[in-house]
């Protein structure tokens, strides 16, 4: 039985590798799930063959992580940064002055969060964050859930014990999905994929980290007796062992080639599925690296060239205030359309009142808009020299633009809220739109626009009304006919069967996202038990 379990583990590891590292799967999701299920069943029946590096552990667990701090065997340093090509030339000149001719490796600078992985006899032993550079947090349980991190190395020839370092990234697609979900439940979205990756790595529940769809790319092998002469060769070997090594690394012989690489990637990076913020230039030879040595903070054999965030200057025409499902007010700037990083920008996020006051943004100002690591452009400053004479400080609204209720601020939150939950139209409609969404009640016969239509027609004013709709209410509405009326009623009826945890998520309690809903449902089992729970009883749930 042990042999069978190990064979399944090898097989699943291989499929994970093909899918997540090579992007070249051999089998479909269905077959993969069948293998995984078979292994799960065997492991459950044979706990004596348990292994923390089994691919079944990739889904993580709900038990609470504790992050012990661990001292780095080799400190995790930073890089000296520059925005200037001239300073890269000075770096090259200094290197050649000290060690003679040198070749370089150019790599992208990934905008995520640094990680150090230790492998012993080919198995993942430990994953530690950078921390303060000397000591970091042990996040092994969470890192195991990242599918592109090998739990067991492939091939042979890897040192019995070594560390490899790289970056944990959240691809744009996962980042956008995560932020949509967070906004849906009234949580503040992450400002950029870097913060999202760092936050996801420090989750208490590794099952939650697993859901975040992180990726990991490695860029540096660390150890005393590495069997390689150059950085490039060491990365190529690591790629053979199953690590995800960037396809964008290049050997460059001189400043011209470095220059070429930087120019090429400053453009081409915009097509990549993850965030980058520069290029790292490293001396390739380990012997020369050793001779160049380190300053207190950074290696003297490497330098980072940072891409400039793309900026444009345009006029702030007006500010709209959007009211979300939870009543949160989001100010949105309407701008004179301007071309930025290949797209025309007309709107930009202004975040909240504090941010507007901090930058002293006023109507009619010429403002700088930037697309940095963020997807939505943001206003980063004001061109004071062109400020109109009679301009006045921006006055944030004091009352809800939709229902007129006086806005409130909650302790510790930067945003304003409209507290009129039961009568403010966008909140009512927003809650119903959330209720019917796929991951909630999944009422797919209804769309956002139909919800608005039914609300405007006075047919629904809360989610309970959905279950009282009759066929004759619907058929005469504009744009609905017999067929869609039947569709709507059928999918509302089907939603009566969704499990408790989804209902709990659907009703949109602030701070109760999918994971919390699941934990609460598992713990309390019924709406009555949950409603009667004391704060202490709530805290006892996972
Ligand atoms: S090498 C001794 N290579 O940038 C320095 N770092 O500013 C070893 N980073 O903490 C770092 N992409 O998190 C290196 N291709 C790359 C990188 C990279 C991103 C990050 C890394 C490091 C920070 C330093």
In short:
The chain has helices at residues 2-21, 29-45, 85-99, 140-143, 172-184, 193-201, 206-211, 231-240, 255-268, 286-292, 353-359, 425-436, 448-456, 463-466, 471-474, 482-494, 500-506, 514-524, 527-531, 535-540; strands spanning 69-71, 81-82, 104-110, 113-120, 123-129, 135-137, 161-169, 215-222, 250-252, 276-283, 302-306, 310-323, 329-340, 343-349, 366-371, 378-382, 408-409, 416-417. The chain is an alpha+beta fold. A hairpin with a 5-residue loop joins strand 12 and strand 13 (329-340).
Arrangement of strands in the largest sheet:
2-11-10-3-9
Share of helical residues:
25-40%
Let me know the average pLDDT. 92
First-last Cα distance: 34 Å
Radius of gyration: 27 Å
Explained architecture:
The chain has 542 residues and is α+β, with helices and mostly antiparallel strands. It is built from 20 helices and 18 strands. The chain has helices at residues 2-21, 29-45, 85-99, 140-143, 172-184, 193-201, 206-211, 231-240, 255-268, 286-292, 353-359, 425-436, 448-456, 463-466, 471-474, 482-494, 500-506, 514-524, 527-531, 535-540, and strands spanning 69-71, 81-82, 104-110, 113-120, 123-129, 135-137, 161-169, 215-222, 250-252, 276-283, 302-306, 310-323, 329-340, 343-349, 366-371, 378-382, 408-409, 416-417. The strands form 5 sheets. The chain has a 5-stranded mixed β-sheet with strand order 2-11-10-3-9. A hairpin with a 5-residue loop joins strand 12 and strand 13. Helix 1 runs antiparallel to helix 2 (29-45) and helix 17 packs across helix 18. The radius of gyration is 27 Å and the shape is globular. The protein starts with a helix and ends with a helix. The mean pLDDT is 92. It binds 2-(butylsulfanyl)adenosine.
């Amino acid at each position: 039985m042990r042999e069978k379990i190990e064979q399944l583990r090898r097989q699943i590891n291989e499929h994970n590798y093909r899918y997540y590292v090579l992007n070249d799967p051999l089998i479909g999701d269905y077959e993969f799930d069948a293998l995984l299920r078979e292994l799960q069943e065997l492991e459950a029946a044979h706990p004596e063959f348990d292994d923390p590096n089994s691919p079944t552990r990739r889904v993580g667990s709900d038990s609470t992580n504790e992050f012990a701090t661990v001292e780095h065997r080799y400190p995790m340093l930073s890089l000296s940064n520059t925005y200037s090509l001239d300073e890269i030339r000075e770096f090259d000149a200094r290197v050649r002055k000290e060690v003679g001719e040198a070749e370089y490796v150019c790599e992208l600078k990934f905008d995520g969060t640094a990680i150090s992985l230790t492998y012993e006899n080919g198995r993942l032993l430990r994953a530690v964050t950078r921390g303060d550079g000397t000591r970091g947090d042990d996040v092994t349980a969470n890192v195991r859930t990242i599918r592109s991190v090998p739990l067991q190395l492939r091939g042979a020839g890897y040192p019995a014990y070594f560390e490899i370092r790289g970056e944990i990234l959240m691809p744009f697609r996962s980042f956008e999905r995560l932020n949509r979900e967070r906004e849906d439940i009234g949580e503040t979205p992450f400002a950029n994929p870097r913060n999202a990756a760092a936050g996801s790595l420090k989750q208490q529940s590794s099952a939650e980290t697993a859901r975040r769809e992180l990726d990991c790319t490695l860029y540096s092998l660390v150890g005393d007796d590495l069997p390689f002469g150059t950085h490039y060769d060491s990365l190529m070997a690591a790629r053979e062992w199953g690590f995800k090594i960037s396809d964008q690394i290049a050997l460059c012989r001189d400043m011209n080639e470095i220059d070429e690489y930087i120019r090429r990637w400053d453009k081409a990076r915009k097509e990549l599925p993850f965030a980058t913020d520069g290029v790292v230039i490293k001396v390739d030879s380990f012997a020369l690296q050793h001779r160049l040595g380190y300053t207190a903070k950074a290696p003297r054999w490497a330098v980072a060239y940072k891409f400039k965030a793309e900026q444009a200057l345009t006029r702030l025409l007006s500010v709209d205030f959007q009211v979300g499902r939870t009543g949160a007010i989001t100010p949105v700037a309407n701008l004179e359309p301007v071309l930025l990083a290949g797209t025309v920008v007309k709107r930009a996020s202004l975040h909240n009142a504090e941010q507007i006051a901090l930058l002293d943004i006023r109507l009619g100002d010429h403002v700088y808009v930037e697309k940095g690591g963020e997807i939505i452009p943001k206003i980063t400053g004001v061109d004071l020299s062109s400020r109109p004479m009679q301009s006045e400080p921006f006055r944030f609204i004091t009352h809800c633009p939709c229902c007129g209720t006086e806005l409130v601020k909650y302790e510790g939150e930067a945003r304003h809220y409209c507290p009129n939950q039961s009568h403010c139209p966008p909140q009512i409609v927003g809650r119903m739109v959330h209720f019917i969404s796929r991951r909630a009640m999944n009422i797919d016969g209804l769309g956002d626009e139909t919800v608005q239509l039914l609300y405007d027609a006075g047919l629904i004013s809360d989610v309970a009304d959905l279950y009282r709709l009759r066929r004759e209410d619907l058929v005469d509405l504009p744009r609905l006919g017999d067929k869609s009326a039947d569709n709507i009623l059928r999918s509302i009826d089907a939603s009566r069967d969704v499990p408790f945890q989804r209902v709990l998520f659907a009703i949109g309690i602030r701070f109760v996202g999918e994971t919390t809903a699941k934990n609460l449902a598992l713990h309390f089992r019924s709406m009555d038990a949950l409603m009667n729970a004391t704060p202490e009883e709530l805290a006892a749930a996972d």
